């Protein structure tokens, strides 16, 4: 064999190994870029709303079953993104939820918590996410 043939054979053997090196480096760069996007640039999921102002609403009396009454006052926990909030929707939802219930249903702590949770869910829907919580400021039964 001549020197020319030996060089040609060495060049041909190095071409596939050089292509493999380039392919491995390119693949590593793609993996690093994907990892960087995943940890640094990917969009985050929906963020939980942050609590804003608390809006008290005047108390009202609601007729319960068997000639009993409930005097209830509520305050709305608004989000920081909340705009003008009208309390009449909250009063309407509160009256709808508590009207006609028995004294036992509104007096028991577990029942009251369940009603409060249901009212909170309803108000979050009515106010399009501007309300994130409800507080009872007055709760008197007769």
Describe this structure in words.
By secondary structure, the chain is an alpha+beta fold. It has two domains: 42 residues; 91 residues, Tetrahydropterin Synthase, Chain A. It is 52% helix and 25% strand. It is built from four helices and three strands, in the order αββαααβ. A hairpin with a 5-residue loop joins strand 1 and strand 2. Helix 2 packs antiparallel against helix 4. The longest helix is centred in the first third of the chain and has 39 residues. It is rod-shaped, with a radius of gyration of 34 Å. The model has no long low-confidence stretch (mean pLDDT 85).
**Shape from CA axes?**
rod-shaped
User: Which CATH first-tier class of the largest domain would you pick?
Assistant: Alpha Beta
* Radius of gyration, taken over Cα atoms and rounded to an integer in Å: 34 Å
Low-confidence stretches: none
Topology diagram in text:
Layout: H1 3-41, E1 51-63, E2 69-79, H2 87-98, H3 103-107, H4 109-126, E3 131-141
Describe this protein with a few key phrases.
single chain, 142 residues, alpha+beta, Tetrahydropterin Synthase, Chain A, 2 domains, 3-stranded antiparallel sheet, 4 helices, 25% strand
Write a short abstract of this structure.
The chain is built from four helices and three strands; from the N terminus they run αββαααβ. The protein is α+β, with helices and mostly antiparallel strands. Helix 2 packs antiparallel against helix 4 (109-126).
